Amino acid sequence: EVGPRLVALSTATFTCKRDWNAHRLLRAIDHNTLLSRLDASACGDPRDCFRTPEELREAYDEMPELVERAERLLAGCSMALPDPPDGRLHNNPHTYTESEDEDEALVRALCAEGLAYRYPDHDDAVLERMEHEIGLIRKQGFLAYFLINWDITSYARSKGYFHVGRGSGANSLVAYLLRITDVDPIELDLYFERFLNLYRANPPDFDIDFSWTDRDDVVAYMFQRFPNVALLAAYNTFQYRAAVRELGKVMGLPKHEIDALCAGKFDPNRLGEMEAVVLKYAAVIRDFPSSLTLHACGVLIAHDTIHRYGALFMPPKGLPTVMFDMVVAEDVGLHKFDILSQRGLGKIKDAMDMVRARDPETAAAIDIHDMRRFKADEGVRAMLREARATGCFYVESPAMRMLMRKLQVDDYLGLVAASSVIRPGVSRSGMMQAYIERHRDPARR
């Protein structure tokens, strides 16, 4: 019978001595102290650098059997991570109900309700598009993803919160029928495959805007409604000048010398030892994370415990937050839900509150998401032609209002075209002026 046996152990925290030096400098930055005053207990052991097999054998030359046992032990170990069936990880909730079949049935029922609301007189083309999208959504495993977004926007409507679904998600007819978005993809000839297709590498996502006064309540609802929820983190990283400045401080350089190094006003042949170290390690830690913060709008919902994917921390906002960013989240199959805020929706709510206070019956009859009615409203079209768009999200800048006045734009497609030709490259090239002239004089088209 073989009992416990000793094996060689070599802790590897750093790849080489240079990385340990960078680690010490980062710890000094974190402790806001001079490198010379940094307590040894605040750093890792300098002996914990990676060793080559030859270095390991040399370290255990008096007991080579320890290395041999370690090699045999490692040779007997293996780990294989199973590949996902479709080559993509899906660690969001796999289902919204109890099964995929029930999810699909719910999506179809909601789409049927949406057809009555969005297309009272729909034709076969709408039904064919709906069937195509539902089939692809199920095949890609995103039925639950759509239903969770529907749940969030349904809650918002029940509370009287206004929302706008935007981004490539507006290309989806199913999203339009579920009232996640308010853009008619049939009318505007938008392609669903831009949002979701069999070959898209990155996951789809909806960008959903709420009023800045309502967003926090919507996020709180998500934490109450679903298990395994956390906010998404983001990293600020060291850029070169910031790295030079921070390293200069911990090395004890005077401010004027740090300023000169940051500005590049130095002779590389006359650098002192400290200055050379600062520049060397500024290049090493460039793009390293410098601080952890919150992603502007990302919320994660996992199908199992969120701790499985990483540690959590509690920021001042008071909601559990993962300690990785959106890139890592996508790598582990967690597709974020983007819950944004904008003040424009808050102003719409304020306007509705004023109407409600003066005439409750009129306010009750207004459906802020009835885009067809607003597009056909002659009063709205007249205001667009006169460029009376101050306070309107995306079209309120002076340059945009001037362009609207020149174009006499009064419909949605005209606004889309105007928001495209006003971009700097188009404007500088002269194409914007050419577009204005051709728009106003059809004979020149």
What does this structure look like?
The chain has 445 residues and is an alpha+beta fold. The protein has 4 domains: 17-75, no CATH class; 100-234 and 293-342, no CATH class; 239-286, no CATH class; 377-444, no CATH class. Helix content is 48%, strand content 9%. It contains 20 helices and 7 strands. α1 crosses α9, α9 packs across α11 and α17 packs across α18.
Computed over alpha carbons, the radius of gyration is 30 Å
Q: Which whole number gives the mean pLDDT? A: 91
- Counted up, domains total 4
Distance between the termini: 93 Å
Spatial strand order of the main sheet: 1-2-7-4-3
The biggest sheet amounts to: 5 strands, mixed
How many helices? The count is 20
Secondary structure category: alpha+beta
Any low-confidence stretches, pLDDT <50, length ≥5? none
